Each structure stands twice: as C-alpha cells, then as structure tokens.
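WARN no homologs supplied; continuing
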Amino acid sequence: MNAGDAGNAKTISIAFFPNNASLVQPTLSQAFTEDLRNFFQSQSRLSLIPRLGDLQIQGSITDYRVTPVGVSNNAAASNRLTISVQVVFTNKLDETKDFEQNFSRFADFPSSQNLSSVEADLIKEINLQLSQDIFNKALINW
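OK structure emitted
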C-alpha cells in the first residue's frame, strides 16, 4: 500500500499549530497549518475534518531563527532560516502508529539580502519540506 492510502483511515484532522518560538513571525502559524493541511489533502485520499479524525495531528512551532552560515572574511556569506515544529500524531485505528517527534528544516539565503525580502518564499519552501517529513513519518508504513 502506498503512503497516500493511509490504510483503513478515511479522515484526518490537523489542529492549528501555535507559534511557541522565542522569535514569533506573525503569519507563520496560519501559513504552516494551512500548508500542512493542503499537503495531506493533495497527497492522500484522506478527508480533512475539523477534529476527531481517524488520524490526528497537533503540535506547535518551537523554533524560528536566523543564524549566519558560510563565514568568509569575518562576515557571514549567507544566513540560515530554521523552523522547528513539535508534532503529536495519533492514529485512532492503530495506536502502535502514534508518535511524538520534533521536525526541523532550514533554507539558506545570501547575507546581502534582507530577510524581509525573502522571508515569504523561504517559509513556503521550509513548510513544504516539513509537511513532506511529517507526511512520510505519519503515513509511510501504510
């Protein structure tokens, strides 16, 4: 069975992911939650319902930070935006598939660019990678 089938599960509920990071990006919670929901809908046959799905995902954003990487001539050649999320996955049909795990992804951008000019694109890219990681972990054994 492929990852998109999800066994006998027919529904999934994905709760809103609050931003508990020390640096809060105002639109990140909404963007991440929507991107995760959209990913599961497009990659599986599961119906998204508001709550109490056969499969349930909840969690929070635990880290959002920018760090210098690739230092040359005592200056950062690039910066790295990292987003981390803590995920709790519950399978109401098979509790042996339940897990709680942290996921983290990053994207680099030139230090000559201001974060605000690339932030939206970086967030979209990282959210997609995180969604793929969570999807794979939740449904890979189907």
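The chain has one domain: 11-139.
OK
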